[in-house]
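Whether sequence alone determines local backbone shape is best considered at the level of individual chains. For completeness, the protein is quoted in full, as a sequence line and a line of structure tokens:
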Amino acid sequence: MRSAVRYADGDLVNYAIAANSTLNITLAAGGTVGTDDIITVTNGGPAVLAGQASILTSGRPHPLLPKQDGRSFCTTLP
């Protein structure tokens, strides 16, 4: 399976993940507005990704985060 991490500016990093395996990654982002302040993680196949995120914020949700309700810093899309 191929998974990808895409930053707000469109920069993309692909990760090959073998079936029935685990991948741990650490990302540092948010230093440049409009470039790395939103990160999207996707899978490239039928497998389901499961995971968690730990974030440090400025205290305000990003206004362009999909499905933003003013309280969420992370969202899951189908």
The mean pLDDT is 75. The chain is about 0% helix and 20% strand. The first strand starts at residue 2 and ends at 7.
